[in-house]
């Protein structure tokens, strides 16, 4: 156990996961996705869930979103147990088919604003067009989702979430399908938006660098079933600090934490 | 009181009702009783729909074959007490065959197929059973059921008229039997219902519940009076009656065919039921009805025109 | 993202775990040729779509109405030949005779009038049935009891023929249009509910989650997410229900009959059948077919074109 | 992947394009608290599923057969009350009377025999109809002409009532079972073809491409990719078709009748209806319902459970 | 135009794209995905298509697979025009739903082997189990796809393609959903397989580093509509050379080529 400079009086967390175990039942088979995972999310905090493929990141995010219920432990928002999803916790899913195919790109982005009654039609359209501009898809506003490439679909989903300006933004590998350049632009846009609205963010990624850039704090998950391997700080890093010695050191540390964990099975297959 | 809903079915057998309705005879006789009668006429397609409608109270007067009426009388005895109101006239049913070898029903072989509406249940089927009982004895009454097939009249008529199917005989009703005989030279009559029932017999009857008759005596009287007048009128004006039938039903049947039937000596338009008891007795013998009627007056209401019912 | 590999010593170490793979990486004899590197200066792209001139045969075949007309013509020909061959105009009139009877009925206005009566009844029953089906499936989509109810009720009542309902219809609605409507609803409700329910269950989970995420629940989720997403299934259910409404109407008009000559197409068919005017019977049926084709091409196909096809949900 | 950013000077340059974003990155007052870093040594995970003791009410409600039985009991109760209230046993017998008639018919073997006759016919027609529907949809799935054919034929023939086919059936198949089969096929073919076709069109393009990639074309593509993928739609089509086969059989036995006492359930119902044994009529209908429920729960629900539900295609 | 040491007599290419333009027609709208793209693929060559999101990489790969036909130009295999897909050109799609959900993971991998008649059942199962082992999913062999995470699904798809050992392997961002570690293991597996069977490979990625590691040659595409911006060599690099000066230089060069291209729109949105 390592520990850095502990802070004295931390304010009450916004979102709390306490010993959360998630399970899927498929016929006779019970698959445990995460095992007793605990962490806190404070207001305006950017939390990153980082871990290998299949370790339960998406499941955890869905549990935070209120889509699946933990079989053990509890998740509380403002001290109250989460019972279901709500527009205050907007989620960007990992799947490409999260956009209703019957709505144009523009209407896809406007839809949650209208559905949750957050904005009237004109205002919703204005906001939607602005975020579409930000994700570089303004010229595809009137296309239907099936006319978009994989990366473009994900960007629409991101735009949709950003337009909502929710209290908590839950994002599941939102930039995985994007090229280096687009990805960095999206990271910038995300951080800029955060600076404006200062929402809380839970961000799933499989990129160590992205975790360091985007997160204030990183929850490192072990391989299947996911358990918390470490909680690390990344608030010191931003897009500019990429490549700095401190950044490299932290990246290397995370890398080792992940490596160590999987050295055994890796050797077996190689 | 003051309202009457009458059902009829399709065909010339219901000419009496058509006339009564077209000439507003019920309204006329209602006025005589000091009553404004609102007449609704509904056309239904079969006996059981008729019965359901009557029992559900959607209908006041039903019209169907003697067989269904007897069944209903039997089942409602002591409850709704359905009984016959009047006959719609005497019509013969012919068993027509295109098989030259068949002269009587005894000549039917395994290869023949007799088309009937509703094997075992319909009037035609009962009459055929009666004939079989006469030929081979009561125990063998269902002998011909084995080669009988249920088929609606139109299809059976088409099959007999043009051939080309397995059907070699059809126990029909007017006007199908006349059309068959006219269309196919090989078609000939094997059996007439009158021979089995003991003379000219009522084919179709009107019936209602006891409740309707007792609740609406004036309407009931006006209705029977109208029928009587209609019967007289038809007898007096067969040509006009034929015209009326074609007009009212928007029928496209040739006028001559209709006229031939109306004028046929075997057809009589009269209210008094005739030769129904033989059938009733037979149905009781074979167990189709449980109550044994003593005479036709058991299952017809005690009305003046039913005095001579048999 | 393998960002960190760049500067991590551990990475290089791990890489020779598979020496066989690494060895093959160095270009050698038998390797693909090493070509020159090239860079292109790209002028701004004025990507005009290429004109594609299709051969006229292809364009002819691409014309859907034409293809369908050809199919119809072929069917008519088969009918004509079959009728001539069987030569029993009381059972099967020729196409020509039917066409004549159809034309006559059409010109005299009789067919139109009957069709109008039937269609108006049919539409009422159809709409009522759709409403009932949606109520039932919406319930089934939101509660487990509703799901059980749907599956039990459909399994029970769907196979029941209309005559089974006759007593109830007569008791509750008497003779006349209302009973017919009742029977029509029975014809429309179950198949549509089944198809719609299957469609609902097939909605991708992630779409459902997205909808719930924006605060949609119950009926709003059904309307905004489930129905559009299940539209292909619903459309096929609507088509089936439409056809069965017709079948039922024609059959039920015979049973329930006609009040004071007010019968529709079913009655027209029944009457002409009784009078052995088989050509008119077929003209009546042809009328049903024509209406069916018109509805299919004007309503359903259009609906499909402006919805599911445009959304790329269906090819 | 932003791997190369690490060491590219250009990257840092581009990053300050959004200074507003960058400024906010440095923790300051009002920022989320900076907590201590922690690492956990993880013991090997022996993740045993947690035992969840559910309250008995919940377990009772989770029992699907029980819930369905409750629904059935409630329906029976409603029926009984309704029948007592209308008090017209010739139109609507009580549930108890029907149950007695059912038991009597069952014990005497009459109902069983009739049901067996109907079922055997029904199954034959059903299987034939399914075969025809799959032939038609397979054709429609692989060729454009097939697609046109399907949409035109269904739009034309689906709305036609069975009586329309009576003359043709008589001419081609004569009296007896074959004509009934013909009518049954008519009842099964169109709705199943419609539902299946809609299902096929809804198969994700990428699955179709994957199939074609492995050399599947035509019928093999249909069998290996389209049918399993469209199974939910096909199942709903099969359910609808099954119900309509029943409806048609019952109705057709009335119209086509029975040869020499060989009638099935439809005939049983018809005859008893004519003789006003309404309790037996309802016993016959109850038999249809019982068979319907049995097939639904034994065949269709099982099929669904071992296929689409297990595959996670349907919830 | 730059050019490095041109080789004299190059053997005939296996697969040739000559001036290929791809278009989608959606209602009245015609979207041009690629514009007159040409490149060659030689036997045993590993070609990478690299470009920004929405530039037509997937479309191009589908055209090579024979799923969509070019509106201009032609694609030839062994000199013959491609008319449709075939089991000799196996494709890994970008979408997560490319696995038939009604087959278990094992059967999913066996399926193409059986369908194309390439192996009898027992042999297919043996091969399938081996590749599943390689992608680290042996323990999920009997699970159905809906029980897998996004990254696991993609690994099954990769396993399915690898088991086929086709002449040409077409892979569309196969590793995008994978974490750093799994990704590198998959890269190793891919290269190892290539070393064994020496098939040709067309690999779509949005990662410059991955392009350099995996490819012999990189076709760099411009943003929408995709045109060939450059063809670069990468045969000198492998997993070991990551971070070497030459590697960095080439990466930087690619980066500049991409940057330059998009500097204009980027500035506009920022
Ligand atoms: N619907 C499901 N049914 C059964 N098991 C599931 C289901 N979804 C996920 N799992 C299992 O739960 C575990 C965690 O899955 P999850 O999707 O949360 O992983 P992940 O961390 O998001 O992985 P990736 O990075 O690959 O997306 C996996 O082992 C997976 O097999
Ligand atoms: N089915 C379609 N209908 C219409 N347009 C399409 C369709 N598929 C793709 N496009 C368009 O074609 C262009 C290229 O798409 P493609 O999927 O090939 O991009 P890509 O390079 O794979 O992008 P990504 O990296 O985001 O997956 C995009 O502009 C997209 O809008
Ligand atoms: Mg995931
Ligand atoms: Mg793509």
From TrEMBL, chains A, E:
Methyltransferase keyword on record: no
Molecular-function GO terms, alphabetical: ATP binding
Keywords: ATP-binding, Cell membrane, Membrane, Nucleotide-binding, Transport
Occurrences of domain ABC transporter (ranges): 15-248
Gene3D superfamilies in the record: P-loop containing nucleotide triphosphate hydrolases
A Pfam family matched in the record: ABC_tran
PANTHER family for this protein: ABC TRANSPORTER ATP-BINDING PROTEIN, TAURINE IMPORT ATP-BINDING PROTEIN-RELATED
Family to which this protein belongs: Belongs to the ABC transporter superfamily.
UniProt protein name: ABC transporter ATP-binding protein
Protein source organism: Azohydromonas lata
Source species taxonomy: Bacteria, Pseudomonadati, Pseudomonadota, Betaproteobacteria, Burkholderiales
TrEMBL record, chains C, D:
Record keywords, A-Z: Cell membrane, Membrane, Transmembrane, Transmembrane helix, Transport
Highest taxon of source: Bacteria
Domain ABC transmembrane type-1: 111-300
CDD domains (alphabetical): TM_PBP2 (cd06261)
Membrane topology annotation: Multi-pass membrane protein
Provenance organism: Azohydromonas lata
Name under which the protein is recorded: ABC transporter permease subunit
Record lineage: Bacteria, Pseudomonadati, Pseudomonadota, Betaproteobacteria, Burkholderiales
Similarity comment text for this entry: Belongs to the binding-protein-dependent transport system permease family.
Subcellular location: Cell membrane
Pfam families listed in its UniProt record: BPD_transp_1
Membrane-spanning ranges: 90-109, 115-141, 153-174, 180-200, 221-242, 248-270, 282-303
